[in-house]
Amino acid sequence: MEFTLLFLAVAVVMLAAWRGPRTLALGLYAAVLIACVATYLHHATDTLKLSF
Amino acid sequence: MTQPRAITLNALSLYAVALVLAAAFAAQFMLHELPCPLCLLQRILFATLAVGPILNIRFGPRPSHYAMSLLSAVAGAVASTRQVLLHILPGDAGYGSALLGYHYYSWALIGFVAAIVLLAGILLFDRQFSDDGAAQPVDGGVFAQTAVWLVIALTAANVATTLLECGFGACADNPVVYELLEHAS
Fold this sequence. Notes:
The complex is a heterodimer. Helix content of chain A is 79%, strand content 0%. Chain A is mainly alpha-helical. Chain A has one domain (2-42). A two-stranded antiparallel sheet of chain B has the order 1-2.
């Protein structure tokens, strides 16, 4: 579900960048990037299935 | 490099992002390979690469817009590097099929690194940041407008396909069915 929301958020950021005020686009972009990094870190804490 | 030329290059970069998103869709629907969570995150970060060029087309080129794309490219390179490392051991078949000898996450890493290099390259041209008085449409013209709407449409399409794949719960680590369609039938 988080990936659906992230795609939706990116689409909203693009629309804000194309039609909305610049500061809104910059703020939304920062929020989305932080959410992406948080999602990555959440998955990166899974154990790596390596054999050594 | 003049401002209009920089805007044309930004529009071209949007077509490149659109091509990547379309190629991912092609693999998903033609080869029936559903993207894993890390694959989806890389797609999302490719999409965020497009925000900088959209701002450049609308407001004119600024270093801060290129910096946004650089941050996205670095984040994407980190995510794709992790997936490459997950499958780096000899004998590991990797996730999904290979295209021209490389899996999609390897291509993604190459793409993100290429984006970093190209963004650094375009930042070398200072003249694009000064208003040289050249007449240019505010929205970059039809070529740029088409690129913007194409990349927005592909991102919106990803909202729908990701919802179909993952449903309203967490995405499966190794997805083989569209969760929402499975529950509907």
